[in-house]
């Protein structure tokens, strides 16, 4: 499944990117460039070749691990994209941790006390969470927690005054490797607001999914059996029921994680987060074909990989699901 | 006689629903002595399952509510226990097996894990020791296949799963095992095996069994005493021989008449006319009266008591009352 999806993805992104009006040469040289200079640059960049030849050149390079060169910076995309990818990945991971922790527990609590006031309150919270636009939530957070209360910084990944040499570009990992706890603390402070903003919608979706999934499981015969054995209520919910309710939750988790990786543009813009969303957004404006094509392909690959992992998780969660055995 | 192991007296469990109060169990008296096998018989919806779940404290409250009476286990009233206390009793003093072996085991945990969990919940033993005991418990129920502890429920047949359920229920050596229609969902040949197994365990371990069933064949095979329930009430109680030879309540007689017999030819099997009453609109007087072929005026207006007919034989019917009932029409003799 992985390979056909990626081939399809490469075709679609390639042609859509080339269908965007405007040319990279124009973007590079500016509106007032002479037609000769434009023509020369286009020739040099291979933009005058037929599209299918451009596509095959692109794929040929891709198979050799060459994601192309950024028109704006002249740097290879495969190198340039890494810090952005790491920033986005780190943010998405934290957002998902928040989303899963609060979402799952809120859902469990609602299901456990179905039709109680706690249930209604949780579901109202979830509804608000789903309906709240990310940009509005982000701005409110900045206003309240950064501006008024000054608990957290309003933007960026790290205080610019801190001297820090990233290795993996995962700041938390880097800070831990280097034993730099000042950086670790500062990175954490910078993480809170964007992670909460980004995690709210997935949190609400996970909460609703968990609730309905748990409600079904809690009514099943084997839960009654567990009660009949004398198992305590907490174990019944978190061990016997949750593992059975997990499959739809994990599915939602995979889809949301994929979405966060590619679609965090709003959050990244509001919080000046140097992530892949903003990287691509800028590249689209500059008609930087190589960056857009390869960037989308990388994000798509990660999306597909995450869903592959989710599929593998199914088999680990539920022994009745097996792959490759007919 | 010594104090009974389980003593349910005047127990009432009502369900408060939006459409009205359902008196699922309405004044049930029932005792089980140590080592005894007691059958609880009745049609679907007569309250036998709710009675058994009440003994385990597994009726969800609300909507259920205990409206009176008591359930005593070796003298201790269970009706107002807290969750903690229930958890100590369930699986340890009283165990239960259910009708649906296919869905009663947790699909995502191994057989071994599920039995070990029951053991470790109630006894302070190491995981290794618990695993050994789990293996022994499975041998006891006739599963000695290697590697069974690591298998998942979906790898077993229905009969095997019910054996696993029994092993799990018996592993802590409970005083009482409640079996809620344990063979209903199984093939006939497997049914016989499971019943044999339960009878054998009862004799070997002395665990008393409360057998919930609608199958009088199961009762005849398994039980020492029988309690017949109808519409939330006990209508007749007797030892098994007496009940089959000399049923006194018209309902019990009807039940017995509706069993097909091999040595007689029937054009049409007998069935009790009418339907079980709507639990929200119970008939006044005797609850069986609308379906009873012997019903008289008094049956429609006044509720009969559970009358002692001697030799621990009880029946709830006006026909046995010589003053109020009509002795001539006492349906003592059954003609089939």
Automatic annotation (TrEMBL), chain A:
<comment type="similarity">
    <text>Belongs to the binding-protein-dependent transport system permease family.</text>
</comment>
<dbReference type="Pfam" id="PF00528">
    <property type="entry name" value="BPD_transp_1"/>
</dbReference>
<dbReference type="Pfam" id="PF19300">
    <property type="entry name" value="BPD_transp_1_N"/>
</dbReference>
<feature type="transmembrane region" description="Helical">
    <location>
        <begin position="81"/>
        <end position="108"/>
    </location>
</feature>
<dbReference type="GO" id="GO:0055085">
    <property type="term" value="P:transmembrane transport"/>
</dbReference>
<protein>
    <submittedName>
        <fullName>Peptide/nickel transport system permease protein</fullName>
    </submittedName>
</protein>
<feature type="transmembrane region" description="Helical">
    <location>
        <begin position="245"/>
        <end position="271"/>
    </location>
</feature>
<feature type="transmembrane region" description="Helical">
    <location>
        <begin position="291"/>
        <end position="317"/>
    </location>
</feature>
<feature type="transmembrane region" description="Helical">
    <location>
        <begin position="191"/>
        <end position="210"/>
    </location>
</feature>
<keyword id="KW-0472">Membrane</keyword>
<dbReference type="InterPro" id="IPR000515">
    <property type="entry name" value="MetI-like"/>
</dbReference>
<keyword id="KW-0813">Transport</keyword>
<dbReference type="InterPro" id="IPR035906">
    <property type="entry name" value="MetI-like_sf"/>
</dbReference>
<keyword id="KW-0812">Transmembrane</keyword>
<dbReference type="InterPro" id="IPR045621">
    <property type="entry name" value="BPD_transp_1_N"/>
</dbReference>
<feature type="transmembrane region" description="Helical">
    <location>
        <begin position="120"/>
        <end position="139"/>
    </location>
</feature>
<keyword id="KW-1003">Cell membrane</keyword>
<dbReference type="GO" id="GO:0005886">
    <property type="term" value="C:plasma membrane"/>
</dbReference>
<feature type="domain" description="ABC transmembrane type-1">
    <location>
        <begin position="85"/>
        <end position="314"/>
    </location>
</feature>
<keyword id="KW-1133">Transmembrane helix</keyword>
Automatic annotation (TrEMBL), chain B:
<dbReference type="InterPro" id="IPR013563">
    <property type="entry name" value="Oligopep_ABC_C"/>
</dbReference>
<dbReference type="InterPro" id="IPR017871">
    <property type="entry name" value="ABC_transporter-like_CS"/>
</dbReference>
<dbReference type="Pfam" id="PF08352">
    <property type="entry name" value="oligo_HPY"/>
</dbReference>
<dbReference type="Pfam" id="PF00005">
    <property type="entry name" value="ABC_tran"/>
</dbReference>
<dbReference type="InterPro" id="IPR050388">
    <property type="entry name" value="ABC_Ni/Peptide_Import"/>
</dbReference>
<dbReference type="GO" id="GO:0005524">
    <property type="term" value="F:ATP binding"/>
</dbReference>
<dbReference type="InterPro" id="IPR003593">
    <property type="entry name" value="AAA+_ATPase"/>
</dbReference>
<keyword id="KW-0547">Nucleotide-binding</keyword>
<keyword id="KW-0472">Membrane</keyword>
<keyword id="KW-0813">Transport</keyword>
<keyword id="KW-1003">Cell membrane</keyword>
<dbReference type="InterPro" id="IPR003439">
    <property type="entry name" value="ABC_transporter-like_ATP-bd"/>
</dbReference>
<protein>
    <submittedName>
        <fullName>Peptide/nickel transport system ATP-binding protein</fullName>
    </submittedName>
</protein>
<dbReference type="GO" id="GO:0015833">
    <property type="term" value="P:peptide transport"/>
</dbReference>
<comment type="similarity">
    <text>Belongs to the ABC transporter superfamily.</text>
</comment>
<feature type="domain" description="ABC transporter">
    <location>
        <begin position="6"/>
        <end position="256"/>
    </location>
</feature>
<dbReference type="GO" id="GO:0005886">
    <property type="term" value="C:plasma membrane"/>
</dbReference>
<dbReference type="InterPro" id="IPR027417">
    <property type="entry name" value="P-loop_NTPase"/>
</dbReference>
<keyword id="KW-0067">ATP-binding</keyword>
<dbReference type="GO" id="GO:0016887">
    <property type="term" value="F:ATP hydrolysis activity"/>
</dbReference>
